[in-house]
Amino acid sequence: MFGRGREGAEGAPFDIGIAGGVIAAIGELSGSGAAKAEEFDAGGRLLLPPFAEAHVHLDTTLTAGDPLWNESGTLAEGIRVWTSRKAVLTKEDVVARAERTIRLYIGYGVQYLRAMVDIGDPKLVALEAVLELKERYRELLEIQVIAFPQDGIESCPANEGRMAEALRLGADGVSAVPHLERTREEGVSSLRRAFAMAERAGAFVHVFCDETDDESSRFLEVCASLAMATGLGPRVAAAHVNAAAYYNEAYFHKVAGLVRQAGLSIVACPLINSVMQGRFDAYPKGRGITRIREFSEAGVNVALAHDDMRTPFYPLGTGNPLDAAHMAAHLAHMCGRSELAELVGMVTEGGAEAMRLGDRYGYREGAFRIGAPASFLLFDAEDARDLIGRRPAPRYVFREGRLAAETAPPVARVWEG
């Protein structure tokens, strides 16, 4: 089978030859002997690699208002509401909600997904449910599971054992929330424990880092130092990192250099953080997101993530990664033509790098690769500006050479007279 598409607004249409689920040829293939192959006409549509969603909560998804609403919109109330909901979780409940969300993500072109799972439940009900879905949907998308200690590690010592058990059961990585621990010293200790566990297991570390407006929250430098000391380096991601928006310039550039040196990825979550942060600020209020542009300019890999979808922490969300790019375009002042293209890169290549997909991701440095999985998205869109401006679902989603999903474009019927 070979398809035909267009990379970028000014790119000429080209063909992709596919054999055995991998990209076998790229270029002008018509009349080259490939004509006997089954042909799918991409119609000159915009061709993108799959979205890589590097930070999402499948256990809390679709629980907004059940049993209570987070009326204040704050993180503290969100945690209280989720704690009450977590007490009555069942495996069937988590599977049903998470499966609905997974199917939404697939339709929007997500083929790689890193799921945060709260392991505060002694029975690990949510973890068991998400691991089951990881296996069930493995032909349509790759799910990485992160054992997430919502209540902390030092503040809730049982969580360390639960994270170890989660790794034994099949989780891919561990996490920490150092800014929610009782003291800075306990925050640092929680990171040391998480990194040591990951080092022993060869696992990922995905830290909820400095998700606060407190400029004195400086756990990112600790993550970078531990990443270098343990050799985990690029297997470490720091999510949120909102305090960086408040750092003085000299300190920010120091820590950005450490992050680059360590090989960490920054995962920004502009949707939820735009409404959850800045609540303690007087006017002018902070924008609620980390320094996306500045980290990128410092040579740090930056991924954008959709994060929560209709949860006690964020009652909105569609599952479309382009929504995160759209919010980032506004809050990060990145509406230039090349900047919009860079934002698309942050929900594709940036997410793939944060998840350390390597050769499993068929797109690198702005180009598809021969021999890579034939997984890509086809959009009815002109370019990155049009894509982020309208945020359509992909017309077609291909996974390893097979059509995995398609969405008919909505058509408005206008009645005149």
TrEMBL record:
It comes from Cohnella xylanilytica. GO terms for molecular function: deaminase activity; hydrolase activity, acting on carbon-nitrogen (but not peptide) bonds, in cyclic amidines; metal ion binding. This is Amidohydrolase family protein. Coiled coil: none annotated. CDD domains: Bact_CD (cd01293). InterPro entries: Amidohydro_3, Metal-dep_hydrolase_composite, Metal_Hydrolase, Metallo-hydrolase_Enzymes. Residues 38-402 form the Amidohydrolase domain. Keywords: Hydrolase, Metal-binding. It comes from the Bacteria. SUPFAM superfamilies: Composite domain of metallo-dependent hydrolases (SSF51338), Metallo-dependent hydrolases (SSF51556).
